[in-house]
């Protein structure tokens, strides 16, 4: 007699109730508007070298500190704003990451002048297939597409956008489905089948 294997979340999603809620309600759901993509790109950059839980705990403080991640407002930040942010105990106070967020906001605005926007650029790197991991050890941390997108973002003036950070962004906003095959959240974006093929193919 076979024993049914229960559907499973990724191990990281079980480490804290905040992570579980993020996994169950948000991670992997499509985000296609500019401000939402800019926010998540910024938060992924702040997460570099730290835990995602640290960022999640400070997320609302980040949103207040960075004017809800409105690129037009953040791009206009000057030296006084940088010092304000460095004094804000509610966020991760890293000068390089704060400065990179301001530069990335300006780069986001330049994309508009070039006839595109950040969301469209990021989504244009959606792969033909998504990973289909059966265990946490099979979940990749980068991909050919994340490396190519990181290179393009850097060319466009973005920083703190290495292939790992970009892949994390892509999984967070549904461009890639990195949920385990047996996870109840697999396919939650409506874009990917359980086997990693695109819906409709």
From TrEMBL:
GO BP annotations listed: base-excision repair
Domain of life: Bacteria
UniProt: Zn(2+) binding residues: 179
This protein's UniProt keywords: Metal-binding, Zinc
Source organism of this protein record: Leucobacter weissii
Matches recorded under InterPro entries: Adenine_glyco, DNA-3mA_glycosylase, DNA_glycosylase
UniProt GO molecular function: DNA-3-methyladenine glycosylase activity; metal ion binding
Name assigned to this protein: DNA-3-methyladenine glycosylase I
Record bears the keyword Zinc-finger: no
Xref: Pfam families: Adenine_glyco
SUPFAM superfamilies hit by this protein: DNA-glycosylase
């Amino acid at each position: 007699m076979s024993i049914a294997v229960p559907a499973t979340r990724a191990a990281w999603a079980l480490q804290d109730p905040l992570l579980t809620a993020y996994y169950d309600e948000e991670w992997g759901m499509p985000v296609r508007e500019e401000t939402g993509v800019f926010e998540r790109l910024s938060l992924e950059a702040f997460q570099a070298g730290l835990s995602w839980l640290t960022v999640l705990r400070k997320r609302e403080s980040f949103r207040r500190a960075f004017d809800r991640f409105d690129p037009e407002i953040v791009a206009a930040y000057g030296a006084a704003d940088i010092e304000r942010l460095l004094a804000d105990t509610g966020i991760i106070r890293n000068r390089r990451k704060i400065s990179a967020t301001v530069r990335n906001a300006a780069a986001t605005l330049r994309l508009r002048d070039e006839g595109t926007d950040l969301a469209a650029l990021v989504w244009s790197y959606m792969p033909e297939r998504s990973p289909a991991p059966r265990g946490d050890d099979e979940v990749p941390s980068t991909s050919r597409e994340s490396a190519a997108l990181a290179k393009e973002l850097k060319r466009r003036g973005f920083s703190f956008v290495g292939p790992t950070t970009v892949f994390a962004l892509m999984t967070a906003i549904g461009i890639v489905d990195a949920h385990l095959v047996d996870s109840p959240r697999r396919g939650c974006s409506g874009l990917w089948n359980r086997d990693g093929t695109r819906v409709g193919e």
